[in-house]
Amino acid sequence: MKRILITGAASGLGLSMAKKYASEGWAVCIADIQDEEGQKVASDLKKQHGIDCFFQHLDITNEDQWQALVNTITERWKGLDALVNNAGVASGGAIDSLSLKDFQWTMDINLMGAVKGCYFCVPLLKESKGALINVASMAGLTHMAKMSAYNASKAGVVALSETLSIELDPFGVNVSVVCPASFPSNLLKTIRSSSDTGKNTAKKMMDRSPVSADDIASMVYEGSRKGKHIIIPTFRETLLWRIKRYLPAFYFMFMKKFIHKIINK
Model's pTM, two decimal places? Predict the structure, then answer.
């Protein structure tokens, strides 16, 4: 029996990944701050698939809660085969308008939450030669204006993942980093933005997404299983990332023209 821990698994992409792995016969730990929803997800998956699925409350910024969860997993499962650092938040606003408190909030959850997950769970993954999956964003690879906090946090997750891909290779641990563009999710419920424009733009981008959370979950499952490092679910975003890598001058010219067009509307 394979064993996976997924943070933020009570809703959104985390829920879709929990369903996918459970359908493939994995035992799943649902870790989230949403207690009622998380307990229901765990109960439903256990009944539907007959696998060991349980919920535990986890605030990913809380080190004591991480240690308690690892203790529970060690006692219950005697190990761990995969960790998905999925829980995260969104924020938006110009650098001089988004409050420093909200900037710090974004970094604490998106980046340091993933760091803490790695810190506490990597010893178990080394033992099992397992898989580490960090959910970043296209914002970690290509950086839109007026998203500095979110971009920086997700770029940090990409850098963390690249580092650990090398660092953990001698131990047989595969590291994947998932970089989806905007897709329908629950991020708008908690987004912190200095204006309604940012929220409205994010909603429009989500509504236009060619992929769903379930689509991305399937890509994550297959990509990680095949040892893929960077997982970008959509062709358009893959193309943009490659343009940035191989034609950086063109990329920055395009991005600057785009922001000028928005400001001058």
Answer: 0.92
